[in-house]
Amino acid sequence: MAIISRGFTGRRPDVAPDRLPPGQYITRDFPVLSAGPTPRIDLDTWNFEITGVVDEPRSWTWGEFNSLPMETVTQDIHCVTKWSKLDTTWTGVSLDVLLDGLETDATHLMAHSYGGYTTNLPLADVRGARSWIAIGYDDQPLPPEHGGPARLLVPHLYFWKSAKWVRGIELMVGDRQGFWERNGYHDYGDPWREQRYWGD
Amino acid sequence: MWEGHIPGQHVDIRLTAEDGYQAQRSYSIASAPEDDHLVLTVERLQEGEVSPYLFDVIEPGEELEMRGPIGLYFVWEAVMSEPLLMIAGGSGVVPFRAMLRHRRAVGADVPARLLYSARTIADVIYRDELEVHDGSDETEVVLTLTREQPDGWGGYDRRVDRTILEEVAWDPDRRPRIYVCGPTTFVELVAGTLVDLGHHPTAIRTERFGPTG
Ligand SMILES: Cc1cc2nc3c(=O)[nH]c(=O)nc-3n(C[C@H](O)[C@H](O)[C@H](O)COP(=O)(O)OP(=O)(O)OC[C@H]3O[C@@H](n4cnc5c(N)ncnc54)[C@H](O)[C@@H]3O)c2cc1C
């Protein structure tokens, strides 16, 4: 049972309740959250790869990646630190394109980032038009503090799953914990079930 | 039941209105595990949803819903042997108070330095306590007052920049363990400059309190 906070009325969000997961509030800016400094990434050596449990690893340079079919999508994003931002517009390549035709027994994946960040996801969660490698935000190149040149975008999970500065995904048979998942945060991170921390 | 915490961890505070509407925010723990009470330190943000409530409305003795302690990354324990460097902007000093009190309570002898940026001397949170730390037990507290300085102020009087960091952060060869906490723009700037100065990115842990500042 929640404790009623005497005299608390709150600032009600001006949105349909089905847009805002429990415990979240709407922000109009775009807060930044990362565990360390923003890494510097050189596009000449940038690479995105698919490795791990896979018949043939795949890899793209920045030039190759940019010639893949791009989509522009509008999505709501939800950060575990309680803010949500509605109708954000991203441009990127669907994971369905990157994984197309690939043979694997993998059940999960680990996203790896420049700077050493990792986060784990079930493979099913990045398939079916639900995740992208985004290189644009609001019709502009994705700024470094928000994960540029490229970040994973998995809007249906808390935003720490949308690894900034992504450099590849490692396909795994079975699950393994990534960075925040080892440091107190939930393994799956569904905002609608409020899976923020260990034990949720 | 409270099972104790590690300096640097935070809690989540949840407010619930009569009709069930809820708002939650995170607050760093300001006290050391050795202290008798759990202390939070909240900066009142104009037009904020939660911080003004904690400031203006809630009274001693009333109940508050809290969850935690949370986080295992932006944490420091006295067994860690590298020099401890803490860099705070505004209310970003809160988790460092927990670290400093813990260090003192257990009598740790790792060198520790706090660089703390505040607008004016009146904005310096825990000023009396920080002054006690000054120099006496190998904790150095360095202040910079960015907006207004008292008469005869001998300390820094500008936003943290490369020169200040060069002077205050240890040489990268000493491999300090670095924590940076404050508003997003402050943290971005400080962490980036530390990397420029040769500190290893993995030695720098950051906590961003929000977009303001
Ligand atoms: C890990 C962590 C630890 C933290 N530790 C601390 C701490 O120790 N001490 C501390 O003081 N803070 C801390 N914070 C920040 C804290 O969680 C809150 O973000 C802060 O208190 C502001 O919350 P609020 O509800 O008062 O303001 P919010 O309602 O979140 O608003 C923040 C600001 O944005 C403006 N704003 C945003 N939306 C609107 C709107 N719709 N209408 C009008 N104005 C708006 C407000 O004017 C306000 O100034 C921490 C944050 C994190 C993530």
Q: Averaging pLDDT over every residue of chain B, what do you get?
A: 92
Low-confidence segments of chain A, given as residue ranges, are none
Strand order of the largest sheet of chain B: 6-5-4-7-8
Note the quaternary state here. Answer: heterodimer
Distance between the termini of chain A: 16 Å
Task: Give the SSE order of chain A as H and E letters.
Answer: EEEHEEHEEEEEEH
pLDDT averaged over residues of chain A: 94
Question: Between the first and last Cα atoms of chain B, what is the distance in angstroms?
Answer: 35 Å
Q: Report the helical percentage of chain B.
A: 10-25%
Largest sheet of chain B: 5 strands, parallel
- Decide which structural class fits the backbone of chain B: alpha/beta
Number of strands of chain B: 8
The helix count of chain B comes to 5
* Count of folded domains of chain A: 1
- List the uncertain runs of chain B: none
Gross morphology of chain B is globular
Considering residues with a beta carbon less than 8 A from a beta carbon on another chain, report the largest interface and each chain's count: A-B, 38 and 41 residues
Describe this structure as you would to a colleague:
The complex is a heterodimer of chains A (200) and B (213). Chain A is mainly beta and 200 residues long. Chain A has a single domain, classed as Oxidoreductase, molybdopterin-binding domain (Sulfite Oxidase, Chain A, domain 2, Alpha-Beta Complex). In chain A, 7% of the residues lie in helices and 30% in strands. In chain A, strands 1, 4, 5, 8, 9 and 10 form a six-stranded mixed β-sheet that branches. A five-stranded mixed β-sheet of chain A has the order 3-2-11-6-7. In chain A, strand 6 (108-113) and strand 7 (118-122) form a beta hairpin. The longest helix of chain A is centred in the first third of the chain and has 5 residues, at 62-66. By secondary structure, chain B is α/β, with parallel strands linked by helices. Helix content of chain B is 22%, strand content 25%. Chain B has helices at residues 51-57, 94-105, 127-133, 162-168, 184-196; strands at 10-16, 22-28, 65-70, 84-89, 112-118, 139-145, 177-183, 204-210. In chain B, the strands form two sheets. Chain B has a five-stranded parallel β-sheet with strand order 6-5-4-7-8, with helices on both faces. Chain B is globular. Chain A binds chain B through residues 2-12, 22-23, 25, 27, 29-40, 81-82, 115-116, 145, 179-180, 182-184, 197, and chain B through 14-18, 20-26, 49, 53, 57-58, 62-65, 67, 70-74, 184, 187-188, 191-192, 194-195, 201-202, 204-206, 208, 210-211. Bound molecules: flavin-adenine dinucleotide. Flavin-adenine dinucleotide is lined by residues 10, 25-28, 41-43, 45-51, 91, 94, 207, 209-210, 212 of chain B.
